[in-house]
Amino acid sequence: MTKHNFGAGPGILPKQALEKSAQAVLDLNGSGLSILEISHRSKDFDDILAKTKSLVKELLNVPDNYSILFLQGGASTQFAMVPMNLLPQGGKAAYVESGVWASKAAKEAKLFGEVELVASSKDRNFCYVPSGYSIPKDVAYLHLTSNNTIYGTQMSSFPESPVPVVCDMSSDIFSRPVDVSNFDLIYAGAQKNMGPAGVTLVIMKNDICGKAGRKIPTMLDYQTHIDNDSLFNTPPVFPIYVCMATLEWLKEIGGVPAIEKTNKEKAELLYSEIDSNPLFKGTADKESRSKMNVCFLLERPELEESFSSLLKANGIIGLKGHRSVGGFRASLYNALPVSSVEFLVSLMRDFAKSNG
Amino acid sequence: MTKHNFGAGPGILPKQALEKSAQAVLDLNGSGLSILEISHRSKDFDDILAKTKSLVKELLNVPDNYSILFLQGGASTQFAMVPMNLLPQGGKAAYVESGVWASKAAKEAKLFGEVELVASSKDRNFCYVPSGYSIPKDVAYLHLTSNNTIYGTQMSSFPESPVPVVCDMSSDIFSRPVDVSNFDLIYAGAQKNMGPAGVTLVIMKNDICGKAGRKIPTMLDYQTHIDNDSLFNTPPVFPIYVCMATLEWLKEIGGVPAIEKTNKEKAELLYSEIDSNPLFKGTADKESRSKMNVCFLLERPELEESFSSLLKANGIIGLKGHRSVGGFRASLYNALPVSSVEFLVSLMRDFAKSNG
After folding, report:
1. For A239, which of B8, B219, B236 is closest by C-beta distance?
2. Given the DSSP bridges, would you call strands A200-205 and A114-120 parallel, antiparallel or unpaired?
3. What is the pLDDT of residues A249-284, one digit of tens each?
4. Are B37 and A238 in contact (CB < 8 Å)?
5. Which stretches in chain B have pLDDT values below 70?
């Protein structure tokens, strides 16, 4: 049975990238060695790292005055590294609380300075993206979360900001064009649209470090990784390789503008079914809906178990909603084909017929 | 041509583990999904994590009052996490400086308290393991490095200590039995004997956190990972899987006592050639010699290029010494077969004949 992977992450990756990566585990480019047993100081890995960086630069149109880093520890480690590096002693940072991950980011910043929550959507369980807030001019930076995986909300545009903007793009990077030059720092755990778990992408302006006025442990200092091109210590070699293979695929199919078109198509298919099918309802406010994570409930919760069984019987994976929202969540990451969404929609229609 | 991988790390892994891992990248246990695209909250990954932990526990005989954690960031991140968590404000820690990695560990500790270097072998470029030093009783812990990859030195035994012992075992863990109960905390980057780059093993007593008296960022607080069983955020799923497959292999061939025997055999083969062949000489003091990394020079440096060509022509990989020692370094990690060492020795003999 074909599996349709709607998981929220680690999520579906392109078959072509998986096959190339499996081959590299057996034998990298006919070298007689596995990608898992080559030195990170080898020519082979130099090429992989350079290629991955250049794909990130090209696909996201990263300006020349930015560094592209491959780190470890996930976005959760960035929650601490950002204020450690960018929030001066006694300084203040502004955070938009658009979900529990944004809250966690703000919590870490409080260890290093003052945090001003400029907006929050906690009042309605984060079912919308805050807007219309004002951004203070006396803060070191504004921290945003572009897509909120748990609640299925996404910033459709970014606010004009008088201060540097830092953005967690873990769950929608590479899904749509962004103007990198509007951000001082972007970070993203790879395990949604970019690759597997175990590597974190950081894209940052070269000159923003060194102003926090505190001693920073070497591995937590962005400058260490800028100066050493992500090779201060052994990087996560294989996760970087899979990112390379995934971004090669993305480039081949037309890059970020092409995938944005497909992602829109998938999201429109599913949202229009949710809106027209009497059995289902979306949880996020319409103007805040995410094109990456589509959260929905059954109008009659007693049908949940039966719908779940139908999904399971048809090879639909990872559709269970996060416990804090309940119901269902379909993640429509780059590698998910339109046909999987069409199939899910057909099941929703069938289900409505049988329970109408 | 068969390749013989003597690389210092990421290093050679067992063929069986590579094949199992490549298969899992294509399809994990017939699930229809790749190991790279499953949720870290899935039953499949729960099983993988539990199995890997139980293999670590069994193979190293880890006592019940210890936690086994799978973190990110390598030993270099542990250099900071250890003092951040274990060195109280205004307190002191003792470090043995047996190489440049030990120095780096001590440097990070200085950010958090006072460091007493109780011994150093820097005077002779770290070609021996310091001994005969006394360990102060007023320090929070003693930090050791069991094996010094760059210089080919290894602690053949550990000092009796009146204070808790923390040990970086990155390059010799699982190569020989150790009595874990003599240590409060052991850490190791996986990429030598345990698996690929991208995961760091920490084995620590459960009750040693929470005494440092400082605020610790969530991801850098060991307690976070103890409380969440390494699942506070997305762990490096695939690197953990490869560790599982590698440790399964180790268990099948007889566990740590069996591999210790093989490792001794390999080291004796190579050291006895170095000592008897007039063209070669070892760099480490004999009583400090590592069974993992064997460093040696040519008596006539002008022959280096010719020896290197011979190695290359015969599929010997990764034998170049670290720039701070020069010459050659043969890493004899667990997965390297005795036959590879026999082959290297035969080449050294041939080389002596042609250049005798």
Report:
1. B236
2. unpaired
3. 999 999 999 999 999 999 999 999 999 999 999 999
4. no
5. none
DSSP A160: -
The pLDDT value recorded for residue B1 is 87
Structural domain count, chain B? 2
Active site residue B266: no
Q: Give residue-wise pLDDT tens across range A295-343.
A: 999 999 999 999 999 999 999 999 999 999 999 999 999 999 999 999 9
- Looking at residue B157, its pLDDT comes to 96
Contact present, A6 and A318 (Cβ < 8 Å):
yes
Quote the pLDDT of residue B113.
Answer: 97
User: Do B30 and B132 lie in a common domain?
Assistant: yes
Asked whether residue B101 falls in the same domain as residue B222, the answer is yes
Nearest to A236 among B7, B84, B197 (CB): B197
Whole-angstrom Cα Rg for chain B: 21
User: Is A1 within a domain?
Assistant: no
Decide if A202 is inside a domain. Answer: yes
Predicted local confidence at residue A349, as pLDDT: 98
Catalytic residue among B44, B101, B249, B266: B101
Where is the domain boundary, B252, B278, B300? B252
Query: How many of the other CB atoms lie within 10 Å of CB of B350?
Result: 12
Q: Annotated catalytic, A192?
A: yes
Last residue of a domain, one of A223, A252, A281: A252
Q: Residue A356 above 90 pLDDT?
A: no
Would residue B110 show up in a list of annotated catalytic residues for this protein? no
Whole-complex ipTM: 0.98
Q: Model confidence over A55-113: pLDDT tens digits?
A: 999 999 999 999 999 999 999 999 999 999 999 989 999 999 999 999 999 999 999 99
